[in-house]
């Protein structure tokens, strides 16, 4: 990963991480790099002092980037799960029966959440009923 100090045409400084110099150039050309302060698409690299990299520094940076990416992914998953829970009916243990009723037209179409054993989930899938488990997130155990 390459760390760049960037600036927009309005004078806002910010940082960005890219897999390579070419990756930065491609993203700028595709208008994917924007100033987080004003949204400007006119972004340039700034002069930077070269960093001497050691194996220890590389490992620390890799852990930092991985940790940040993991935190962002978990935050997105939390929002997704929250949205699903807010927009679905929790039918608990009745989930397999309610999912079948909807699938076979015996009940109105609606979002459901609930519980099913592994065997019940497999049977639903084999019947062509689309289901997916909600992820268990790190904070869910607390």
Work out the strand percent: 15-25%
Indicate how many domains the architecture comprises.
3
Q: Mean pLDDT score, rounded?
A: 87
How many helices in DSSP terms?
4
- The sequence of SSEs as H and E is EEHEHEHEH
Poorly predicted regions: none
SSE class: alpha+beta
Say how many strands there are: 5
Label the overall shape: elongated
| First-residue to last-residue Cα separation | 34 Å
What do these coordinates show?
It comes from Sinorhizobium medicae. This is DUF1178 family protein. There is one protein chain. The protein has helices at 21-29, 55-86, 95-103, 118-126; strands at 2-8, 13-18, 43-45, 89-92, 112-114. The protein is an alpha+beta fold and 142 residues long. It folds into 3 domains: 2-49, no CATH class; 52-83; 88-134, no CATH class. It has a 3-stranded antiparallel β-sheet with strand order 2-1-3. It is elongated. The two termini are 34 Å apart.
Short summary of the structure?
The protein has four helices and five strands; from the N terminus they run E-E-H-E-H-E-H-E-H. It has 142 residues and is of the alpha+beta class.
Labels describing this entry:
142 residues, 3 domains, 3-stranded antiparallel beta sheet, two-stranded parallel sheet, 4 helices, DUF1178, DUF1178 family protein
């Amino acid at each position: 990963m390459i760390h760049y100090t960037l600036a927009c045409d309005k004078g806002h400084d910010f940082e960005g991480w890219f897999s390579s110099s070419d990756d930065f150039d491609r993203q700028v050309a595709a208008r994917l790099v924007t100033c987080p302060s004003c949204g400007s698409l006119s972004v340039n690299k700034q002069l930077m002092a070269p960093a001497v990299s050691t194996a220890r520094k590389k490992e620390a940076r890799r852990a930092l980037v991985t940790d940040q990416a993991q935190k962002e992914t978990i935050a997105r998953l939390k929002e997704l799960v929250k949205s699903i829970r807010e927009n679905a009916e929790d039918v608990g243990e009745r989930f397999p029966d309610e999912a079948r009723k909807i699938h076979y037209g015996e009940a109105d179409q609606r979002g459901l959440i609930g519980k099913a054993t592994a065997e019940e989930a497999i049977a639903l899938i084999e019947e062509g009923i689309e289901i997916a488990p909600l992820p268990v997130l790190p904070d869910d155990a607390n």
